[in-house]
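Deliverable D4.2, example record:
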Amino acid sequence: MHKTHKLLTLSRPTEFVSGVGKDQLSEILDAAHPRKSGAGKVIMREGARAAHLFLLKSGRARFYRLTRSGGEVLLSFLRPGDVFGLGTLLDHPARYIGTVETTGDSEYLVWEDIRIRRLAQKYPRLAQNALGIVLRYLAAHFDRLFDLVTCTAAERLARALLHLSKETGVVVPNGVEITATNEELGAQANVSPFTVSRSLNRWTRTGALHKSRGKVFIHSPEKLIDD
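Output generated by the structure prediction step:
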């Protein structure tokens, strides 16, 4: 019951167990192993067999893929409540399609593939929730592809900033704080770090935001849209 209490007090909803009854939730959480790690810990690696399902309880992580030359392509940031490794729910688990690495002190839950599959069979709501999560991720990546074709670089960056402010932003007295480097913002918007720097400087002059090391503070979102 101790695990259940800690999960239910997450600052954000946990879609994977949405609609699951209290007793069922306790059983599901008891089947997981709690883990902690600092920044820079790879907890899921692209290409490896999907042997575990993960749920981020606290902290922050990034999900990326490697290019043939060894570079990284950021796919998304992960926040508390997000799950990854959903291929474990298949009877013949797929391989992980990307790598997840923590970017700060983090806590997460880990289920072995056999145990989580049995739970999903016992409680079909888990499988339904997993499908909803996959479709949401797919829609987000379709949106990025659509933006790449139809929007300017500045428009893509503005949309990326607004998306991050909604998904991972922290409300502060003068706006919303986002933790992201120019390289990470560029990967999210499909623009170069130079374009990110130039656009952020312009928006700083208009009062829309200001930037400090590894952080962006958005003051007037409407100025990003009207730019």
